[in-house]
Protein backbone atom coordinates (compact mmCIF):
# COMPACT_ATOMS: atom_id res chain seq x y z
CA UNK A 1 0.00 0.00 0.00
CA UNK A 2 1.26 3.49 -0.83
CA UNK A 3 0.95 7.18 0.02
CA UNK A 4 2.59 9.69 -2.34
CA UNK A 5 2.88 13.30 -1.19
CA UNK A 6 4.03 15.68 -3.87
CA UNK A 7 3.66 19.28 -4.99
CA UNK A 8 0.75 18.16 -7.21
CA UNK A 9 -1.29 16.77 -4.30
CA UNK A 10 -1.63 13.66 -2.19
CA UNK A 11 -2.37 10.27 -3.70
CA UNK A 12 -2.56 6.85 -2.12
CA UNK A 13 -4.31 3.56 -1.57
CA UNK A 14 -7.33 3.37 0.71
CA UNK A 15 -7.01 1.68 4.10
CA UNK A 16 -4.01 0.64 6.16
CA UNK A 17 -1.84 2.70 8.47
CA UNK A 18 -1.85 6.47 8.86
CA UNK A 19 1.02 8.05 6.93
CA UNK A 20 1.54 4.99 4.78
CA UNK A 21 -1.77 5.08 2.89
CA UNK A 22 -4.59 7.49 2.09
CA UNK A 23 -6.45 7.05 5.37
CA UNK A 24 -9.21 9.36 6.71
CA UNK A 25 -6.58 11.00 8.95
CA UNK A 26 -4.29 11.73 5.99
CA UNK A 27 -7.21 13.15 3.98
CA UNK A 28 -8.16 15.48 6.85
CA UNK A 29 -4.56 16.63 7.42
CA UNK A 30 -4.01 17.45 3.77
CA UNK A 31 -7.43 19.12 3.31
CA UNK A 32 -6.67 21.20 6.42
CA UNK A 33 -3.31 22.28 5.02
CA UNK A 34 -4.93 23.27 1.72
CA UNK A 35 -7.65 25.22 3.55
CA UNK A 36 -5.04 27.06 5.60
CA UNK A 37 -3.14 27.90 2.40
CA UNK A 38 -6.37 29.21 0.81
CA UNK A 39 -6.90 31.54 3.77
CA UNK A 40 -3.32 32.79 3.54
CA UNK A 41 -3.80 33.95 -0.07
CA UNK A 42 -6.25 36.75 0.72
CA UNK A 43 -7.62 38.28 3.90
CA UNK A 44 -11.39 38.27 3.39
CA UNK A 45 -14.58 37.56 5.26
CA UNK A 46 -15.74 34.49 3.35
CA UNK A 47 -13.80 31.80 1.48
CA UNK A 48 -15.26 29.37 -1.06
CA UNK A 49 -13.89 26.09 -2.46
CA UNK A 50 -15.46 23.91 -5.17
CA UNK A 51 -15.28 20.15 -4.54
CA UNK A 52 -16.15 17.32 -6.94
CA UNK A 53 -15.24 13.67 -7.35
CA UNK A 54 -15.09 10.83 -9.82
CA UNK A 55 -17.09 7.64 -9.16
CA UNK A 56 -14.47 5.74 -7.16
CA UNK A 57 -15.86 3.52 -4.41
CA UNK A 58 -13.97 5.55 -1.80
CA UNK A 59 -14.99 8.89 -3.33
CA UNK A 60 -18.00 9.71 -1.18
CA UNK A 61 -16.12 8.91 2.04
CA UNK A 62 -13.09 11.02 1.07
CA UNK A 63 -15.25 13.87 -0.20
CA UNK A 64 -17.26 14.06 3.04
CA UNK A 65 -14.04 14.13 5.06
CA UNK A 66 -12.55 16.86 2.87
CA UNK A 67 -15.67 19.02 2.72
CA UNK A 68 -16.31 18.92 6.46
CA UNK A 69 -12.67 19.66 7.18
CA UNK A 70 -13.02 22.82 5.08
CA UNK A 71 -16.25 23.64 6.91
CA UNK A 72 -14.31 23.34 10.17
CA UNK A 73 -11.90 25.95 8.84
CA UNK A 74 -14.76 28.33 8.16
CA UNK A 75 -14.64 27.77 4.39
CA UNK A 76 -17.87 27.51 2.38
CA UNK A 77 -17.99 24.50 0.02
CA UNK A 78 -19.75 24.19 -3.33
CA UNK A 79 -20.40 20.45 -3.63
CA UNK A 80 -20.58 19.28 -7.26
CA UNK A 81 -20.94 15.63 -6.23
CA UNK A 82 -20.13 13.27 -9.12
CA UNK A 83 -18.20 15.41 -11.56
CA UNK A 84 -15.10 15.52 -13.76
CA UNK A 85 -11.74 17.19 -13.29
CA UNK A 86 -12.30 19.73 -16.11
CA UNK A 87 -15.82 20.44 -14.82
CA UNK A 88 -14.46 21.39 -11.40
CA UNK A 89 -11.79 23.49 -13.14
CA UNK A 90 -14.35 25.58 -15.02
CA UNK A 91 -16.64 25.79 -11.97
CA UNK A 92 -14.02 27.53 -9.80
CA UNK A 93 -13.91 30.84 -11.74
CA UNK A 94 -17.63 30.63 -12.56
CA UNK A 95 -18.33 30.44 -8.81
CA UNK A 96 -15.73 33.15 -8.04
CA UNK A 97 -14.26 30.59 -5.65
CA UNK A 98 -10.86 30.70 -4.00
CA UNK A 99 -9.90 27.21 -5.14
CA UNK A 100 -11.07 23.71 -5.92
CA UNK A 101 -10.43 20.09 -5.02
CA UNK A 102 -11.08 17.07 -7.23
CA UNK A 103 -11.18 13.69 -5.50
CA UNK A 104 -9.73 11.35 -8.11
CA UNK A 105 -6.67 9.20 -8.73
CA UNK A 106 -7.02 9.65 -12.50
CA UNK A 107 -6.02 6.44 -14.28
CA UNK A 108 -4.95 4.54 -11.14
CA UNK A 109 -6.89 1.36 -10.18
CA UNK A 110 -9.92 1.46 -7.87
CA UNK A 111 -7.99 1.07 -4.60
CA UNK A 112 -6.37 4.47 -5.19
CA UNK A 113 -7.72 7.95 -4.56
CA UNK A 114 -6.24 11.43 -4.42
CA UNK A 115 -6.80 15.11 -3.75
CA UNK A 116 -6.06 17.24 -6.82
CA UNK A 117 -5.74 20.90 -5.85
CA UNK A 118 -6.69 24.03 -7.83
CA UNK A 119 -6.06 27.74 -7.42
CA UNK A 120 -8.61 30.54 -7.84
CA UNK A 121 -8.25 30.35 -11.64
CA UNK A 122 -9.29 26.69 -11.62
CA UNK A 123 -5.74 25.67 -12.57
CA UNK A 124 -3.34 23.26 -10.85
CA UNK A 125 -1.04 24.74 -8.24
CA UNK A 126 2.54 25.71 -9.02
CA UNK A 127 5.43 23.77 -7.51
CA UNK A 128 6.02 26.51 -4.93
CA UNK A 129 2.35 26.54 -3.91
CA UNK A 130 2.25 22.77 -3.59
CA UNK A 131 5.43 22.81 -1.52
CA UNK A 132 3.88 25.37 0.83
CA UNK A 133 0.86 23.11 1.42
CA UNK A 134 3.14 20.17 2.19
CA UNK A 135 5.02 22.40 4.64
CA UNK A 136 1.77 23.37 6.40
CA UNK A 137 0.71 19.71 6.57
CA UNK A 138 4.05 18.71 8.11
CA UNK A 139 3.99 21.57 10.63
CA UNK A 140 0.54 20.57 11.92
CA UNK A 141 -0.20 24.27 12.45
CA UNK A 142 -3.85 24.34 11.41
CA UNK A 143 -6.26 26.68 13.22
CA UNK A 144 -9.97 25.84 13.02
CA UNK A 145 -12.98 28.13 13.33
CA UNK A 146 -15.24 28.52 16.33
CA UNK A 147 -18.84 27.35 16.27
CA UNK A 148 -20.26 30.69 15.07
CA UNK A 149 -17.94 30.85 12.06
CA UNK A 150 -18.15 27.39 10.50
CA UNK A 151 -18.51 27.10 6.75
CA UNK A 152 -21.55 25.78 4.91
CA UNK A 153 -21.96 23.17 2.17
CA UNK A 154 -24.07 24.08 -0.86
CA UNK A 155 -24.89 21.42 -3.45
CA UNK A 156 -24.79 22.34 -7.14
CA UNK A 157 -25.14 19.47 -9.59
CA UNK A 158 -25.74 21.62 -12.67
CA UNK A 159 -22.10 21.99 -13.65
CA UNK A 160 -21.76 19.09 -16.06
CA UNK A 161 -24.58 20.68 -18.08
CA UNK A 162 -22.95 24.11 -17.74
CA UNK A 163 -19.65 22.60 -18.85
CA UNK A 164 -21.32 21.12 -21.95
CA UNK A 165 -22.94 24.50 -22.69
CA UNK A 166 -19.51 26.14 -22.54
CA UNK A 167 -18.03 23.54 -24.91
CA UNK A 168 -20.85 23.96 -27.44
CA UNK A 169 -20.39 27.73 -27.32
CA UNK A 170 -16.74 27.50 -28.42
CA UNK A 171 -16.35 29.16 -31.83
CA UNK A 172 -14.52 26.22 -33.41
CA UNK A 173 -17.05 23.59 -32.28
CA UNK A 174 -19.15 23.07 -35.40
CA UNK A 175 -22.33 21.63 -33.93
CA UNK A 176 -24.31 21.88 -37.17
CA UNK A 177 -21.74 19.97 -39.25
CA UNK A 178 -21.44 17.28 -36.58
CA UNK A 179 -25.23 16.85 -36.46
CA UNK A 180 -25.37 16.57 -40.24
CA UNK A 181 -22.64 13.89 -40.24
CA UNK A 182 -24.93 11.51 -38.34
CA UNK A 183 -22.14 9.83 -36.36
CA UNK A 184 -22.67 6.65 -34.38
CA UNK A 185 -20.28 6.39 -31.43
CA UNK A 186 -19.62 3.78 -28.74
CA UNK A 187 -18.59 5.32 -25.40
CA UNK A 188 -16.60 3.48 -22.72
CA UNK A 189 -17.04 5.48 -19.52
CA UNK A 190 -15.09 2.95 -17.38
CA UNK A 191 -18.02 3.09 -14.91
CA UNK A 192 -17.05 6.57 -13.76
CA UNK A 193 -18.23 10.10 -14.43
CA UNK A 194 -17.21 10.05 -18.10
CA UNK A 195 -20.20 7.73 -18.49
CA UNK A 196 -22.37 10.68 -17.47
CA UNK A 197 -20.65 13.60 -19.19
CA UNK A 198 -19.55 12.21 -22.57
CA UNK A 199 -22.92 10.71 -23.62
CA UNK A 200 -24.69 13.94 -22.59
CA UNK A 201 -22.28 15.98 -24.75
CA UNK A 202 -22.66 13.63 -27.73
CA UNK A 203 -26.44 13.68 -27.52
CA UNK A 204 -26.36 17.49 -27.57
CA UNK A 205 -24.20 17.22 -30.71
CA UNK A 206 -26.77 15.01 -32.42
CA UNK A 207 -24.65 11.87 -32.20
CA UNK A 208 -26.16 8.36 -31.86
CA UNK A 209 -24.60 7.03 -28.64
CA UNK A 210 -24.04 3.39 -27.68
CA UNK A 211 -23.07 3.19 -23.99
CA UNK A 212 -20.51 0.72 -22.67
CA UNK A 213 -19.62 0.76 -18.96
CA UNK A 214 -21.32 4.10 -18.39
CA UNK A 215 -22.83 3.41 -14.94
CA UNK A 216 -20.88 5.49 -12.35
CA UNK A 217 -20.43 2.64 -9.85
CA UNK A 218 -16.66 2.96 -9.43
CA UNK A 219 -16.21 -0.73 -10.23
CA UNK A 220 -13.86 -0.33 -13.17
CA UNK A 221 -14.52 -3.14 -15.71
CA UNK A 222 -10.90 -3.04 -16.91
CA UNK A 223 -7.69 -1.21 -16.06
CA UNK A 224 -8.84 2.43 -16.23
CA UNK A 225 -5.78 3.71 -18.12
CA UNK A 226 -7.01 4.17 -21.74
CA UNK A 227 -4.37 2.00 -23.43
CA UNK A 228 -4.88 -0.48 -26.28
CA UNK A 229 -4.46 -3.59 -24.14
CA UNK A 230 -7.33 -2.47 -21.86
CA UNK A 231 -9.86 -1.66 -24.59
CA UNK A 232 -10.72 -5.02 -26.15
CA UNK A 233 -14.42 -4.73 -25.28
CA UNK A 234 -14.68 -1.26 -26.79
CA UNK A 235 -12.89 -2.34 -29.98
CA UNK A 236 -15.24 -5.29 -30.39
CA UNK A 237 -18.32 -3.16 -29.69
CA UNK A 238 -17.35 -0.58 -32.34
CA UNK A 239 -17.12 -3.30 -34.99
CA UNK A 240 -20.27 -5.09 -33.82
CA UNK A 241 -22.31 -1.87 -33.76
CA UNK A 242 -20.88 -0.72 -37.13
CA UNK A 243 -20.05 2.53 -35.36
CA UNK A 244 -18.00 5.37 -36.82
CA UNK A 245 -15.69 5.40 -33.81
CA UNK A 246 -15.27 4.57 -30.15
CA UNK A 247 -14.48 7.02 -27.37
CA UNK A 248 -12.85 6.17 -24.04
CA UNK A 249 -11.90 8.43 -21.15
CA UNK A 250 -10.16 7.87 -17.84
CA UNK A 251 -12.15 8.00 -14.56
CA UNK A 252 -11.89 11.79 -14.11
CA UNK A 253 -12.35 12.62 -17.81
CA UNK A 254 -9.19 14.60 -18.54
CA UNK A 255 -7.70 11.93 -20.85
CA UNK A 256 -9.23 10.93 -24.17
CA UNK A 257 -8.59 8.17 -26.70
CA UNK A 258 -10.36 7.03 -29.86
CA UNK A 259 -10.99 3.69 -31.59
CA UNK A 260 -11.42 3.77 -35.38
CA UNK A 261 -14.25 2.13 -37.34
CA UNK A 262 -12.18 -1.04 -37.72
CA UNK A 263 -11.76 -1.43 -33.96
CA UNK A 264 -8.14 -0.24 -34.02
CA UNK A 265 -6.60 2.37 -31.73
CA UNK A 266 -6.33 5.84 -33.22
CA UNK A 267 -3.47 6.26 -30.76
CA UNK A 268 -3.80 8.33 -27.58
CA UNK A 269 -0.76 10.34 -28.71
CA UNK A 270 -2.69 11.33 -31.84
CA UNK A 271 -5.71 12.70 -29.94
CA UNK A 272 -3.76 15.93 -29.44
CA UNK A 273 -2.27 15.79 -32.94
CA UNK A 274 -5.73 15.65 -34.57
CA UNK A 275 -7.25 18.35 -32.35
CA UNK A 276 -4.22 20.58 -32.95
CA UNK A 277 -4.49 20.02 -36.71
CA UNK A 278 -8.08 21.29 -36.60
CA UNK A 279 -7.39 24.28 -34.33
CA UNK A 280 -4.26 25.32 -36.26
CA UNK A 281 -6.17 25.16 -39.56
CA UNK A 282 -8.55 27.82 -38.18
CA UNK A 283 -6.29 29.79 -35.83
CA UNK A 284 -2.58 29.44 -36.75
CA UNK A 285 -0.19 29.67 -33.82
CA UNK A 286 2.10 27.77 -31.50
CA UNK A 287 1.71 24.48 -29.65
CA UNK A 288 3.17 22.82 -26.55
CA UNK A 289 3.26 19.26 -25.27
CA UNK A 290 5.43 17.50 -22.74
CA UNK A 291 8.75 15.77 -23.39
CA UNK A 292 7.14 12.33 -23.40
CA UNK A 293 4.79 13.17 -26.28
CA UNK A 294 5.04 12.29 -29.97
CA UNK A 295 7.10 14.22 -32.52
CA UNK A 296 4.03 14.25 -34.76
CA UNK A 297 2.70 17.38 -33.00
CA UNK A 298 5.86 19.26 -33.96
CA UNK A 299 5.43 18.11 -37.58
CA UNK A 300 1.78 19.23 -37.72
CA UNK A 301 2.53 22.56 -36.02
CA UNK A 302 5.32 23.41 -38.46
CA UNK A 303 3.13 22.36 -41.40
CA UNK A 304 0.68 25.09 -40.30
CA UNK A 305 3.50 27.62 -39.88
CA UNK A 306 3.64 27.56 -36.09
CA UNK A 307 6.33 26.83 -33.52
CA UNK A 308 6.38 23.83 -31.18
CA UNK A 309 8.02 23.55 -27.76
CA UNK A 310 8.23 20.74 -25.19
CA UNK A 311 7.84 21.17 -21.44
CA UNK A 312 8.62 18.98 -18.46
CA UNK A 313 5.94 16.34 -17.80
CA UNK A 314 2.99 17.57 -15.76
CA UNK A 315 -0.03 19.65 -16.66
CA UNK A 316 1.17 22.67 -14.67
CA UNK A 317 4.43 22.68 -16.69
CA UNK A 318 2.61 22.41 -20.01
CA UNK A 319 0.26 25.26 -19.04
CA UNK A 320 3.14 27.51 -17.94
CA UNK A 321 4.94 27.05 -21.28
CA UNK A 322 1.68 27.49 -23.22
CA UNK A 323 1.14 30.84 -21.54
CA UNK A 324 4.75 31.85 -22.14
CA UNK A 325 4.61 31.00 -25.86
CA UNK A 326 0.98 32.07 -26.40
CA UNK A 327 0.13 28.57 -27.66
CA UNK A 328 -3.30 28.18 -29.24
CA UNK A 329 -3.53 24.52 -28.19
CA UNK A 330 -1.42 22.08 -26.22
CA UNK A 331 -1.56 19.18 -23.87
CA UNK A 332 -0.02 15.83 -23.16
CA UNK A 333 0.42 12.77 -25.32
CA UNK A 334 -1.64 10.70 -22.91
CA UNK A 335 -4.77 12.07 -24.58
CA UNK A 336 -4.94 15.34 -22.63
CA UNK A 337 -6.21 18.35 -24.61
CA UNK A 338 -5.64 21.87 -23.28
CA UNK A 339 -7.47 24.52 -25.30
CA UNK A 340 -7.03 28.03 -23.82
CA UNK A 341 -10.19 29.35 -25.51
CA UNK A 342 -11.99 27.10 -23.04
CA UNK A 343 -9.65 26.94 -20.02
CA UNK A 344 -6.11 25.95 -19.08
CA UNK A 345 -6.78 22.34 -18.15
CA UNK A 346 -6.90 18.95 -19.86
CA UNK A 347 -10.47 18.42 -20.98
CA UNK A 348 -11.86 15.35 -22.73
CA UNK A 349 -15.18 17.09 -23.48
CA UNK A 350 -13.39 19.84 -25.40
CA UNK A 351 -11.29 17.18 -27.15
CA UNK A 352 -14.34 15.21 -28.26
CA UNK A 353 -16.03 18.31 -29.68
CA UNK A 354 -12.92 19.47 -31.58
CA UNK A 355 -12.20 15.98 -32.93
CA UNK A 356 -15.75 15.47 -34.19
CA UNK A 357 -15.70 18.95 -35.77
CA UNK A 358 -12.56 17.95 -37.67
CA UNK A 359 -13.94 14.55 -38.66
CA UNK A 360 -17.24 16.02 -39.88
CA UNK A 361 -15.49 18.77 -41.84
CA UNK A 362 -13.05 16.40 -43.55
CA UNK A 363 -15.79 13.84 -44.35
CA UNK A 364 -13.45 10.90 -43.92
CA UNK A 365 -13.47 7.92 -41.61
CA UNK A 366 -11.25 7.74 -38.54
CA UNK A 367 -8.71 5.29 -39.99
CA UNK A 368 -8.19 7.53 -43.04
CA UNK A 369 -7.71 10.54 -40.77
CA UNK A 370 -5.06 8.67 -38.77
CA UNK A 371 -3.29 7.62 -41.99
CA UNK A 372 -3.04 11.28 -43.02
CA UNK A 373 -0.67 12.09 -40.11
CA UNK A 374 3.08 11.40 -39.75
CA UNK A 375 3.47 7.89 -38.39
CA UNK A 376 5.45 7.30 -35.23
CA UNK A 377 5.16 4.45 -32.74
CA UNK A 378 5.63 4.60 -28.99
CA UNK A 379 6.44 2.14 -26.26
CA UNK A 380 5.39 3.05 -22.70
CA UNK A 381 6.94 0.80 -20.09
CA UNK A 382 7.78 1.04 -16.41
CA UNK A 383 10.21 -0.30 -13.83
CA UNK A 384 8.82 -0.86 -10.33
CA UNK A 385 10.79 0.97 -7.64
CA UNK A 386 12.25 -0.82 -4.64
CA UNK A 387 13.62 0.85 -1.48
CA UNK A 388 17.22 0.11 -2.49
CA UNK A 389 16.92 1.66 -5.97
CA UNK A 390 18.66 5.05 -6.27
CA UNK A 391 16.76 6.64 -9.14
CA UNK A 392 18.86 9.82 -9.28
CA UNK A 393 22.06 7.80 -9.52
CA UNK A 394 20.62 5.60 -12.27
CA UNK A 395 19.52 8.61 -14.32
CA UNK A 396 22.92 10.23 -13.86
CA UNK A 397 24.67 7.08 -15.10
CA UNK A 398 22.40 6.97 -18.18
CA UNK A 399 23.10 10.65 -18.80
CA UNK A 400 26.85 10.00 -18.67
CA UNK A 401 26.60 6.93 -20.91
CA UNK A 402 24.74 8.85 -23.63
CA UNK A 403 26.54 12.19 -23.27
CA UNK A 404 27.42 12.05 -27.00
CA UNK A 405 23.71 12.18 -27.96
CA UNK A 406 21.29 15.13 -27.68
CA UNK A 407 20.18 15.21 -24.03
CA UNK A 408 17.45 17.10 -22.16
CA UNK A 409 17.51 16.92 -18.37
CA UNK A 410 14.78 19.32 -17.20
CA UNK A 411 12.66 16.29 -16.26
CA UNK A 412 14.57 13.05 -15.84
CA UNK A 413 16.69 12.25 -18.88
CA UNK A 414 15.54 12.42 -22.50
CA UNK A 415 17.91 11.04 -25.12
CA UNK A 416 17.23 12.11 -28.71
CA UNK A 417 18.70 9.80 -31.34
CA UNK A 418 18.54 10.52 -35.09
CA UNK A 419 15.26 8.66 -35.71
CA UNK A 420 14.05 7.85 -32.20
CA UNK A 421 14.09 8.98 -28.57
CA UNK A 422 13.82 7.63 -25.03
CA UNK A 423 12.58 9.50 -21.97
CA UNK A 424 13.38 8.20 -18.47
CA UNK A 425 11.77 9.78 -15.42
CA UNK A 426 10.50 8.99 -11.97
CA UNK A 427 6.68 9.10 -11.90
CA UNK A 428 4.91 11.73 -9.79
CA UNK A 429 1.88 9.48 -9.29
CA UNK A 430 3.23 5.92 -8.92
CA UNK A 431 6.36 4.30 -7.37
CA UNK A 432 7.89 3.57 -10.80
CA UNK A 433 10.43 4.77 -13.36
CA UNK A 434 8.65 5.51 -16.64
CA UNK A 435 10.46 4.42 -19.79
CA UNK A 436 8.93 6.01 -22.90
CA UNK A 437 10.35 5.56 -26.39
CA UNK A 438 9.34 6.58 -29.90
CA UNK A 439 10.58 5.24 -33.24
CA UNK A 440 9.47 4.78 -36.88
CA UNK A 441 8.07 1.29 -36.13
CA UNK A 442 6.53 -0.40 -33.09
CA UNK A 443 9.21 -3.09 -33.19
CA UNK A 444 11.98 -0.48 -33.00
CA UNK A 445 10.23 1.42 -30.19
CA UNK A 446 9.77 -1.76 -28.13
CA UNK A 447 13.32 -2.92 -28.80
CA UNK A 448 14.74 0.46 -27.72
CA UNK A 449 12.69 0.38 -24.50
CA UNK A 450 13.79 -3.17 -23.71
CA UNK A 451 17.44 -2.30 -24.36
CA UNK A 452 17.33 0.76 -22.10
CA UNK A 453 15.51 -1.18 -19.34
CA UNK A 454 18.19 -3.89 -19.48
CA UNK A 455 20.86 -1.19 -19.17
CA UNK A 456 19.09 0.33 -16.17
CA UNK A 457 18.86 -3.04 -14.45
CA UNK A 458 22.54 -3.67 -15.07
CA UNK A 459 23.57 -0.46 -13.28
CA UNK A 460 21.02 -0.58 -10.44
Automatic annotation (TrEMBL):
GO biological process: carbohydrate metabolic process; peptidoglycan biosynthetic process; UDP-N-acetylglucosamine biosynthetic process
GO cellular component, one term: cytosol
Domain Alpha-D-phosphohexomutase alpha/beta/alpha: 8-140, 171-263, 270-374
Keywords, alphabetical: Isomerase, Magnesium, Metal-binding, Phosphoprotein
Cofactor: Mg(2+)
Domain Alpha-D-phosphohexomutase C-terminal: 394-454
Keyword Iron-sulfur: no
Keyword Magnesium: yes
Molecular function GO labels: magnesium ion binding; phosphoglucosamine mutase activity; phosphomannomutase activity
Matches recorded under PANTHER family: PHOSPHOGLUCOMUTASE (ALPHA-D-GLUCOSE-1,6-BISPHOSPHATE-DEPENDENT) (PTHR42946:SF1), PHOSPHOHEXOSE MUTASE (PTHR42946)
Similarity comment: Belongs to the phosphohexose mutase family.
Protein name (record): Phosphomannomutase
Lineage, broadest ranks: Bacteria, Pseudomonadati, Bacteroidota, Flavobacteriia, Flavobacteriales
Amino acid sequence: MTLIKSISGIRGTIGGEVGDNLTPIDAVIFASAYGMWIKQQRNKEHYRVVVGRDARISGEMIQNLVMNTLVGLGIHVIDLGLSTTPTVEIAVPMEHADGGIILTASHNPKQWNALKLLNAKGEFLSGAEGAKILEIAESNSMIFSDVDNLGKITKNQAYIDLHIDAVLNLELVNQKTIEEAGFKVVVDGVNSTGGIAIPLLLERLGVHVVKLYCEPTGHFPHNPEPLKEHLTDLSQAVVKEKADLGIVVDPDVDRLAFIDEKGEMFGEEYTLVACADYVLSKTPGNTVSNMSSTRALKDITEKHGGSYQASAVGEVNVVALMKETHAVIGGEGNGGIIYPESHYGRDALVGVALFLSLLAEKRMNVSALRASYPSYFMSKKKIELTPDLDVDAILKQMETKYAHETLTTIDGVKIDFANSWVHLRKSNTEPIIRVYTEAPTQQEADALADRIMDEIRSVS
